[in-house]
Amino acid sequence: MVHKRKDETFKLIKVEDEDNYADYLFSDSEENQDITEEDREFRKQLLAAILKTPTNRQKKSYNRAVKNYVGKDVELGTDGVKINNHMGAKKWRRVNNASMMVSLTKEEDIILDGSDIVPSVVTAFSQLFIDPNKMKTWMNFDAKSEEEQREILEALNMHRYNKSLLEEEGFIEISNDDVNIETSSDEYEFPDKVEGNNPVYKAVNCFSRIDRKLRNYLDKQNIPYDFIEQLDEKIRNTFTQNPNAEIMEPMYASEFRRYARAIAQYNFLECLTVADGEKKMIHISNKKSFYIPPYTPIGSYLMMRSSKLTRTRHQQ
Fold first, then answer.
1. CA 146/CA 74 separation, integer angstroms
2. Which residues form the R3H-associated N-terminal domain (predicted)?
3. Residue 301, C-beta contacts closer than 8 angstroms, at least 6 positions apart
4. Cystine design at 296: which of 3, 30, 203, 271 (Cβ 3.0–4.6 Å)?
C-alpha cells in the first residue's frame, strides 16, 4: 500500500513543482503474505528505475536494443517499417495508418499467413480421403494391370476432348438418364425449324470470326462472287462427307488466297499457304473431329450484306 508520509517537518510543495516520489512512503505490510521474493525484487528494480534518471549511455543502449528488436521481429502496427528517428513523412504516415488499423481490429482477426484472402484448394488427391467412394474407385483402378490402366486413361482423354469441342461449338451433352424414354413421339412436340437454332452457326457470327483485314477485303464492291461461291460449295460438300478430309489446290494470285482464308475461317476451318518451289498452294484442313456448315453460305450472305451497305450509302 502507498501512504502519505506524516512528518512534522514536511516541506510545502509548490503548485508548479512536479510531484516527487520521495514524499511518499511505499509499504507492502498488508500484502507481505501474498508477494513472493521475485515480485518484491522486481518492484525494487522498478522503483529504482523510476527514481533514477537514465544517463546518455543508458539511453543509447536502450535505443540500440529497440532498434535490434524491431529489425529482427517487426511488431504489429508498423506495416513492416523499421522505425528510426530519421524516417520521412511518408513512412511515419504509413506507420500511423497501420497503427490505427490495428487498433480498430480484433487480435483474433489478424491473420499473417494470407489464408483469409487465398481460397482453399481441394486437389484431386485430397478428394480421395474426403469421399470414400472415390477412394474405392481409385483402389480398383490401382489394382488393374498397366495395359488396362492405359486403356482407361485414353478413353477418358478422348471423352474430355470431344466434350470440350462440343462445348466450344455451343452444344450441350445430354446423358441417357436425362431423356424420358417412356414419352412417345406423338406426345413430344418438335420445333417447327430445327435448322438455325444455334447462334454459333448463324451467318453474322461466322462472319465476325473472320480476321479484320480479310473482312475488309470482303466488304469491297468488286469481289469475285463466282470464285467465292464455288470454293465455299466445294468446302461444304467435302467436309460434310468426311470431316477429316483435306483440300490442296494451286492458287497463284495472293488476292484469291486471301479470299480462300476468309472462306475457311467462315466455315470453322484452317487455311495455310504452302510453297512448292515457285508454285503456291492452299491447304484447307479441319482441326475438329466433326464439321457442321454455317446455316447461310458465305456468297449469299455477302450479297445480302453488300445490298444493305449500298442502301445505307444512298440514304446518307
1. 55
2. 84-218
3. 203, 207
4. 203
Block residue for cell numbers 449500298: 310
**Residue 232 buriedness (CB in 10 A; 0-12 / 13-18 / 19+):** buried
CA dihedral 75, 79, 84, 85 (to 10 degrees): -120
How wide is the angle at C-alpha 151 spanned by C-alphas 150 and 156, nearest 5°?
95
User: Can you give the pLDDT of all 316 residues of the chain as single tens digits?
Assistant: 555 556 555 566 555 556 666 666 555 555 555 667 777 777 666 666 555 555 666 666 666 665 565 445 455 556 566 677 777 888 888 878 877 777 777 766 666 666 666 666 677 777 787 888 888 888 888 888 888 888 888 888 777 766 655 555 555 555 544 444 344 444 434 333 344 567 888 888 888 889 888 888 888 878 888 889 999 999 999 999 998 899 988 888 888 899 999 999 999 999 998 887 778 889 999 988 888 888 889 988 888 887 766 555 555 5
Residues 6+ apart with CB under 8 A from 218: 210, 259, 262, 302
Q: How far is CA 3 from the centre of its chain?
A: 68
Burial classification of residue 77, based on how many CB atoms lie within 10 Å of its CB (0-12 exposed, 13-18 middle, 19 or more buried): middle
Provide the domain limits for residue 183: 124-189
Yes or no: say if 111 and 118 are a contact pair by the CB < 8 Å rule: no
**What is the CATH number for 220?**
3.30.1370
Q: Which helix (H) or strand (E) holds 20?
A: none
Mean pLDDT of the chain: 72
Same-domain check for residues 143 and 214: no
Closest CA to 233 of 305, 299, 302, 301: 299
Residue 117 belongs to some domain of the structure: no
Q: Position 209: which residue type? A: R
- Together in a domain, 14 and 90: yes
Q: Distance of alpha carbon 243 from its chain centroid, rounded? A: 36
